[in-house]
Design goal:
single chain; mainly alpha; Alpha-lytic protease prodomain-like; Alpha-Beta Plaits; 2 domains; three-stranded mixed sheet; about 70% helix
């Protein structure tokens, strides 16, 4: 599945899942199920943002963005992390009002059954998005997939707690569960914010650097040494550069042919890496 199709599916499914979870809340009057539904509002907004970022990231490089537009996916991931944290604040606000004045819960068996159906849709959508994200190298899809998966985990916790509340009659468990959900949601949001921030700060790409060093190690007889290897990620692309010391007796053409060969060989092994080599004489 292509990135744009996956983003569209995520947004439409998010709307449907929100509606289903809202029905579960109205039936049961459970603030824990309300918190679960409120998180789905954020899912919809985040999926819309993801769809926008995916559409922009696919645009070809232009005069204003000569490296392309893929980095908008990292911005999308950062904003989605912030959205997730905001969702947690909404959950805390809803739960705080009922902590000391628990409301009566109704028809929990039916409500939980409806919630299970919505969560099954969420789990399937999360699996599809993470699979697409890995094949496309999309951080925006990955962020949305992890967001949905955190929703699945927290909802399972809500079910367990509501079963306990139903068996024991302890209404305050409903609010405590909502707080637990909020903590899990905050953890996921902070994780996405940190990951996106690192990528926006041009953090080095260790795995790709190791591949470049391995490639150069197979051609050491053709140059003297290399240094100043730098990498940075731009969406699903990695831009790398290094300085290559060669024999001073090589002609410009011979040095150019050598760098061309190294760059092309790396491109065959790592299609997402764009390597630029600066040739210099030995010191």
């Amino acid at each position: 599945m292509e990135k744009k199709q996956a983003a569209l599916l995520a947004m439409f499914c998010g709307i449907a899942i929100f509606g289903i979870k809202l029905v579960a809340y109205f039936i049961s009057n459970s603030v824990a199920l309300l918190s679960d539904a409120l998180e789905s509002i954020v899912n919809i907004a985040a999926s819309g943002l993801m769809l926008f970022s995916v559409c922009v990231s696919e645009k070809a490089p232009d005069r204003s963005h000569k490296y392309g537009h893929e980095k908008i996916e990292d911005i999308s991931c950062l904003v989605e992390g912030i959205f997730i944290i905001l969702a947690a604040l909404l959950i805390i606000n809803a739960a705080a009002g009922r902590l000391f004045e628990p409301a009566e819960l109704f028809k929990l068996d039916i409500a939980i059954g409806i919630s299970m159906f919505a969560t099954a849709l969420n789990a399937g959508l999360s699996w599809l998005l993470i699979k697409t994200a890995k094949s496309c190298g999309s951080t925006a899809l990955e962020g949305d997939a992890k967001h949905l998966f955190s929703d699945v985990i927290s909802t399972v916790g809500v079910w367990i707690g509501l079963f306990v509340a139903q068996l024991t009659g302890w209404g305050f468990v409903d609010s405590i569960l909502a707080f637990v959900v909020a903590v899990l949601v905050v953890r996921m949001g902070v994780g996405l914010v940190l990951k996106a921030s690192n990528r926006l700060m041009d953090q080095s790409c260790r795995e790709e650097e190791e591949k470049i060093i391995e490639l150069l190690g197979r051609h050491t007889f053709r140059f003297i040494d290399f240094h100043d290897l730098k990498t940075r990620r731009h969406g699903n692309q990695v831009f790398a550069e290094l300085h290559l010391s060669v024999d001073g007796s090589l002609s410009v053409k011979e040095a150019h042919d050598l760098t061309d060969h190294l760059e092309e060989e790396l491109k065959e092994e790592q299609p997402n890496v764009s390597l630029t080599i600066h040739v210099e004489p030995p010191k």
